[in-house]
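Predict the 3D structure for this chain.
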Amino acid sequence: MRKLCIAAALLSAIVLAQTPDFSAPGRYDWDFRTEDITGTTEVMEDSRIYFPDSAGEFPQSAIPAPIIVFGHGWQMGIDRYYSYAEHLASWGYVTVLPTISNPITNPEHDKRAQLMVDAARFTSALDTVAGDRFYGALDRWNWGFAGHSMGGAIALLAADTLGLYDTLRAVVALASPQTTPPTHSEHLLSPKLLLPGSVDNIAPWRNVRAAFWADAPAPGTFAVIRGANHGYFMDFSYFWENGGTATITRDTQQMIARRHMTAYFERYLHGDSSDWNFAYTYGDSILRHPTMETVEVRLPAVAVAEPFVSLVGDLAVGPNPVRGRALIRYGVPESGRVALVVYDAAGNRVRTLVNRRESAGVRALMWDAADDAGKALPAGTYVIRFAGHGWARTRTIALLR
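Done. Predicted structure below.
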């Protein structure tokens, strides 16, 4: 019996040693470059792009690297968020800190949401510039948006309004108040993680819940960090910016935010479908963690017992029946050309969602229930077919109007 106990303890130690600590730095060193990013309405001067680094080279094991854009708070500079960009770069992400303007009287969050997209597109284009460090190194259409306060809010507004169906895989917002114009939570089909603080009176968690979570469809997680205020999400803040007296330290608050943010992006941008990751995104390691005041999770409406596709050509669509928009996940088993096509009940092709070469991995996109011309499809039964070389998967869905 004693030998069995020792063996079990050794096995547990091995398992724990192999499981990542999402709050700790990843496997890579990091570096950054400064860029003037040309946006639709302004030039985001002296923006920073952080990236994984290995002795001055882009590490081959990080290729293709997803792109994360991290938005700053209102009247805050990007220097408040360097630690997040450094952390995400160490996990293999190319992370952009755009210097978005901060108008005092008219926030125009819709314009600032577009600037988040502009920053992602600017960075993804570097993948095609011969001689650039990023040449051939980026997963160009695999994006995550994140941010604190205004930065998180405009990330969510972008997910709501800008039609990022085939690029934006996940959104993480830290203590983010409602936008102007308002974000409609029922349109937030992208996987979303909302992390407000329990003692934040700048973005009170109940207001955050009402703005972005109350009517939001699955998948998503809403988790209130116990004792967290507004300012401690940043690397530094002044007392008038804190919006409440925190009962935890800044380091602790940022560690909690890093942990769940990283787990979320690992799941949706790097395809980590492990049980360990699930625990920190939707399971007990967030639901029942003592650092959380209250937590709500919404798993995908389809395949709840098996909510994430694997790398064997799997296909999942939700919600089903579809009303307005649907989130489609598909697993590419090996690099090659794949097609994701919607057919009506008569077998007519009505929408081609994907027809390109893709690397192996889990992907997600949103379909707006429209045809190739952008016209809303009528209610009825449709078939979504996902196919590659020598294999195909189909899912039958009901579209409601």
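The longest strand covers residues 43-53.
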